[in-house]
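Following up on my earlier thread - several people asked me to post the actual chain instead of describing it. Fair enough. Here it is, all 562 residues.
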Amino acid sequence: MMKLKRILATAAAVVLAAAFSGVSPAEVGAASYPSALEEAAFSMLTGASVRLKTGESGLRFTAVMDKTDYGALTACGGELTFGMLICPYDYIEAFGPLTAESVFGKNAVYATENGGAGVRIMCVTSPRLAEYDEYRMCFNGAIVNILQANVGREFFGAGFIALADENGTHYKFAVGDDNRRSAAYVAQRALEISDRYSEEELSLLRGYVETCAQTSADYAVNCYLETDEGYVLRQSETHAAPVGSRATVDPPVFEGYTLHEKRSVLSSAVYAGGKTNLDLFYVKTGEVVDLSFAVDLSAENSLDTETLFGAVTEINGTAVAEEGGKVSLSAAQTALIHEKAEGGFWKFTTDRREYLLRVNAYDKIIRKFSELTALNEKPDGNFLLGGDVYGENLPFRVTAEFNGAFDGGGHCIRGVDVGKGLFKTVGAAGTVKNLRIKDVSATNAALAYEVHGVIENVAVESGSAQCAVQSVSQTARIDKVFAVLKKGGCFVQSVVGAPPAMSRLIGLFGAYAGSEADALAESLYFCAAVSDVFSVAAEYGWQELSVGENYLKFCGDIVFSR
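Reply from S.P.:
Thanks for posting it. Predicted structure:
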């Protein structure tokens, strides 16, 4: 096997390929895996970016970690090394994935040092991470001065952590696998937002694209037909054209169907690596579209109507105008249209069809930490968390008895001092669901001190809370609550009156990095140790809690990893 520096890049790339020191292949899979490393959420950013520096430009991959996890990791003792492995993607196809065993094990398939056995790959390392944004740290690894012959070749990046302590060296690889990119493709996408770059940077980007301009790349034309189960692929064709040229399609005709022009892609640049798809969507006249909206009755609303067939002209009889696939409504228009709604449905009229769509109207869609006060101002209202909110460790509690509905929308309330619980009391008519709370400071419960109503589909993470919920009454229903409490604890600290029936405590289980939970057995359906939580989550089949090989995701975000 030729050395990597010969087949991929000039000698300048070797400067970045630092030798991985202090790691013995025999130490892979050492015992006593540190909890701080097990709990750290370490992931790859999707794709790659172009490193734009004259003389050292190339392809860059990035791994990120939450600042809280990074602080815990650096404080746990031992020698830390952060690294990025980079190799052509065809190596992965030929020799298998990059793992601790395949790279650092006794019988490693890959080699990161000159003279070692195995296929040569790059390994860039550092003893620390750099700041990525307000909440995350990052590590970048790049291959630079890529040979012209490899500008269109796809590379793959995988971040890793090595922690050496008295028990050996422990590894954790970054979660994420959508990192197959070529320099030419990334440069093409960057040029589509050219106003972000200087003339010198644009020249570097154009150079990558021009290198592949005479090469041919495949592109696909995919035709999807509308069915009761959604759009189904009916026909797919592969064509070829020069990289950087324009691919266009003359849409085929399907009997009984009409092309959805607004949603279809009829023309696109031809990207390197076969990453161009011309997707055509066809609808049947009179079919119901699977679409719903959430509106804020106290603010302006913008409805994304791009998927509707034709331009929207009226909603519930009120004239509106669609521009760029969106309909903008003032707060007054929203209130007027909602007054005419029947059973939670709005009638959208386009110049081609009528739609009856479900619209969920909220007293307030909360998008900032300061707007959480609406829960105290109207504790019987209907609220939606419209995005993650960050409290910067400021205090906040819902002190009024909450008898409204609070839908977290799968988003997170983070970095808040909640005292004895984010909710002092969830009343019998109250509901809290689809919520994640993370890094909250608590003197008792993290989520709620008293619950008489419904808690459903909630993930709780706290380093100080003793429990997720302090007490529940016989009117309470707690369904699917996952908690990671680093100081131990339990879900239900005490029970008011007789313990609730098991049917009201469905799917309750947690993971503890500290002491065993002092839990009431009759009040818990599941209570798992860290080592068991993956199998428990997989067995329960909780839809919003997806189980991967090394992580759990709640509504798409990593909440627990090993």
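The mean pLDDT is 81. That should answer part of your original question.
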